[in-house]
Design brief:
Layout: H1 3-8, E1 33-41, E2 45-55, E3 60-69
Antiparallel strand pairs: 1-2, 2-3
Length: 70
């Protein structure tokens, strides 16, 4: 998977930097709480992530911690 594919799956989006970040276009106002994820990609790449989404009347806050081991 490349950075665009990861962004489509709400995993992360990566551009020309070293760090992956949240994809703001994929956040839902209905989503709330914690999400844990793990997946394995070819070439022995492991991805683990934790995401917390909270919203108030005027904003959505999302925090994500991601680890990629290759």
């Amino acid at each position: 998977m490349d950075a665009r594919s990861l962004a489509l799956y709400n995993s992360a989006s990566g551009y020309d930097g070293l760090l992956l970040s949240n994809n703001p276009a994929s956040l839902s106002k209905r989503a709330k709480g914690n999400t844990y994820s793990y997946f394995y990609l070819p070439a022995n790449i492991h991805f683990t992530g934790f995401q917390n989404v909270n919203h108030t009347n005027s904003e959505v806050r999302a925090y994500k911690i991601s680890f990629m081991n290759y």
